[in-house]
Amino acid sequence: MWGAAGGPASAASRSAREAAGALAARMTPEEKVGQLFMIEVAGRDAFRVSEAAAALNRRRYGVDTPAEVVRRFAPGGVIYFCERGDDNLGAPGQIARLSGGLQRVSRDTSGLPLIISVDQEGGAVSRLPTPPATEQPGNMALGATWSTADARRSYEITGAELDACGITADHAPVADVNVNPANPVIGVRSFGASPRAVSQFVRAAIDGLHRGGVAATAKHFPGHGDTDTDSHVGLPRITHSRAQLDAIDLPPFRAAVDAGVDLIMTAHISVPALDPTGVPATMSHAVVTGLLREELGFEGLIVTDALDMRGASEQFPPDRAAVTALAAGVDMLVLSPDLPRAYAAVLDAVRSGRISASRLDASVIRVLSHKIRRGLFAATADEARAERGVGRPEFRSDVAAITARGTTLVKNDGGVLPVRTGARRVLVTGADPVAVSRLTASFRSRGHTVTALDAGAAPEAAVIEEAVGHTDAVDLVVVATSGLSVGGGQDPGAAQVELVRALLATPSPVVVIGVRTPYDINRFPGAPVYLATYGNGATALDQAVGVVVGEHGPSGRLPVSVPVAGDPSRTLFPVGHGLRF
Questions:
Q1: Catalytic position from the list 232, 246, 382, 398
Q2: Could you read off the pLDDT of 21-32 as tens digits, one per residue?
Q3: What pLDDT digit, counting tens, does each position of 190-237 carry?
Q4: Which of 228, 319, 458, 548 could form a disulfide with 182 if both were Cys (CB 3.0 to 4.6 A apart)?
Q5: Of 262, 305, 319, 542, which is the active-site residue?
Q6: Burial of 408 by CB count in 10 Å (0-12 exposed, 13-18 middle, 19+ buried)?
């Protein structure tokens, strides 16, 4: 980790930089350029893959296997996915075998190890299959515990499981302060709306990942928390003034730097207060070098968010994006949509002098320093250790308790909860099929008779009528809502709201559970009972059912404020609100 000037960590960093400089001095320009890329590969084994994975590798890189991709480009790192067609992540032993194979090929090819990374934030963005991996609650659920010790433990478990699989860096935690309920891309991925609290949780998460044995990444710099546009599909524009950025967005990143974060990921967002040209922050010298490197004093690795996202690719084709981001001060280019084209463009820019030798060396030395400091030259991956180290009983037990502490009772008019008197007939419905299935299983495991009705993302009138018809034959109605405040149309949640209102008009007691962001209650403020789980994971929903039936009381408190619908200047429920019984 980066340490205070003159301290042990600082001395270790100086030693690593000196060793990295000596390595870089022996490298060719081609080898140096390879170290600037973090790429994806398709398949679950370095040497033998399915025909579908081979076809994807051929389309991207002209070769069949992950091993051949690494041999051809000698990249600085890889990033694993379970989607995008890559299919990297299965059983823990398989992941470790893939990691070990890729590391051997990289060392044999370039003499250098890989940074092997993944987006394992917990909650909404979780790449490792669960089970066997421990299902983490996610950042906003952790924020609702108001316990940095819980966050530290959650991330320590994540780090330990990644380390066991041979993964060396986690692209987490999210350091964005979610002050916009309509934010379609951050939301529950944020710890909350308080810059001070988010800063404290970011510190705890970084410490936890380090304790677990992996590098940490703070993202998305300089702050993606106040937008109603998803940078995967467009370029968001952040209208905060510099004073607002200093007060709201930048404190968690300053805290991350102070905590010794290893990597910081840039955002594909336009921030006119920092760069009036309107280019994405990833491509802005003023943001990357001027603010992050010079003003905040960050000495670690600066990496891009995925360059195939429309926030970057819409204005910048692969060759231009790579060169522009490097010129801005970025060290590693993540997921270029056309690696051969981007690699050739960077190499040409180096040879022509558009990227100077000193600029190239600065980034290469930082990449190599990271690998030395994190011990990657000696990194190994053991299949048996992975199988033993992922999903351990104590991990699952600790996380279940942490998840329970974040479950938030926002409303309980008339003391409807807890419902303690014996087995009941329950109607479980809602727009999230995963939530409906998991809530149904949780009630049934406790001996209740359940009627389950998946109402669909936009419930039609006939489905709403069917749900209402079931209420005569049940003792309790549980309806799961999902993302009613998130942008994406004139009113993407209107049909869900109609379902809830129709159920509330029946004589049956109704419990509404917000299984995405906690803001849904502002669409039906008259609902007597509202629980927020901040996610639809099996553990989160089981803990919510535990609250409903009185197995344990709720202890979470809102880490964000819930505004009045249509009037964000007025607050329906403030930060810190949470009921007990």
A1: 232
A2: 999 999 999 999
A3: 999 999 999 999 999 999 999 999 999 999 999 999 887 666 767 888
A4: 228
A5: 305
A6: buried
